[in-house]
Write a structure and sequence with these properties.
Elements: H1 2-9, H2 11-19, H3 37-51, H4 55-73, H5 75-79, H6 84-89, H7 91-98, E1 110-116, E2 120-126, H8 132-145, E3 150-156, E4 163-170
Antiparallel strand pairs: 1-2, 2-4, 3-4
Helix pairs in contact: 1-2, 2-3, 4-8
Length: 171
């Protein structure tokens, strides 16, 4: 997240969000570390306050950015699929495979395929962390990776975003 913040908003913003957060790690991060979700939440909250961008929109951009991280660190994972619908429908197993390379606590979201056709997918997301917009960012970049486009609707099952249905129609 901090690399993204530095790229988009500058080092001064990185310093601001770290210094205004109560972080167990004291803001010292490595690329191989796993950090608490509370740290990510604090950093996002302060970034939102500083930039006046909603946390949902920040999570969307972070998901899109994180896809590039996956592209670099796990190319074999992406190359195992030839279609975005296939890849997204396999997200449950993909997440658990790559869990050790993700920077957050290992409490992972659950995904359940409700309906799948060649050009559409309905998939439910469930997580106490309510990071559905992060998932939406990953999905957007998945279609881009496969040189494809889609309409992705996010329907909140629970208003707090802990349970969401994604309705995806490949264009």
């Amino acid at each position: 997240l901090l690399e993204l913040v530095e790229d988009k908003f500058g080092l001064e913003t990185v310093d601001y969000i770290i210094s205004n957060s109560d972080l167990e790690s004291n803001g010292i991060y490595t690329s191989v570390g796993i950090y608490s979700f509370s740290e990510l939440s604090q950093l996002l909250q302060h970034l939102s306050e500083r930039t006046q961008i909603s946390i949902d929109n920040l999570l969307l951009v972070y998901g899109e950015y994180f896809f590039r991280v996956l592209e670099k660190s796990c190319p074999e994972l992406l190359l195992a699929y030839t279609d975005p619908i296939e890849m997204i429908s396999a997200i449950e197993s993909i997440i658990h495979f790559g869990a050790g390379k993700i920077y957050l606590d290992l409490e992972l979201p659950a995904f359940k395929v409700i309906e799948k056709t060649e050009n559409s997918l309905i998939i439910d997301y469930k997580s106490s962390r309510a990071m559905c917009y992060f998932s939406l960012g990953l999905m957007n970049k998945t279609f881009e990776f496969f040189n494809s486009t889609a309409t992705i609707e996010l329907e909140k099952i629970m208003e707090d975003g802990t349970e969401v249905r994604f309705v995806i129609h490949k264009n």
